[in-house]
TrEMBL record:
It comes from Lichtheimia corymbifera JMRC:FSU:9682. It comes from the Eukaryota. GO terms for cellular component: L-cysteine desulfurase complex; mitochondrion. Residues 9-66 form the Complex 1 LYR protein domain. InterPro entries: Complex1_LYR_dom, Complex1_LYR_LYRM4, ISC_assembly_LYR. Signal peptide: none annotated. Belongs to the complex I LYR family. GO terms for biological process: iron-sulfur cluster assembly. This is Complex 1 LYR protein domain-containing protein. Pfam families: Complex1_LYR.
């Protein structure tokens, strides 16, 4: 099992990937980024080699910077139109 500091770092990276993945204005990019992040983290969840974990964390940090940059660029060029598959959240009746 990973050390607590590494576990915290990995969980923080995971949350950041989901957070910035959800900032894409395009439904397709947003869905892909979130799905790809979940799949990648789940695929490597059982890794026990500290060297491999450190390498993957380093790679993930670099990739997170790319996702952040692309999400920002995505917000600059929004069309404001929603796709049919995008649902709007309706308020619950009290």
């Amino acid at each position: 099992m990973a050390t607590p500091a590494t576990r915290t770092q990995v969980l923080s990276l995971y949350r950041n990937f989901l957070r910035y993945g959800n900032k894409f204005s395009s439904y397709n990019f947003r869905d892909y980024a979130v799905r790809r992040s979940r799949d990648a983290f789940r695929a490597n969840a059982n890794e026990a080699d500290p060297e491999k974990i450190a390498t993957m964390i380093s790679k993930a940090e670099k990739e997170l910077e790319v996702v952040k940059r692309q999400a920002l660029i995505s917000t600059l060029y929004t069309t404001g139109e929603k796709l049919v598959v995008e649902t709007t959240v309706k308020p619950r009746a009290a």
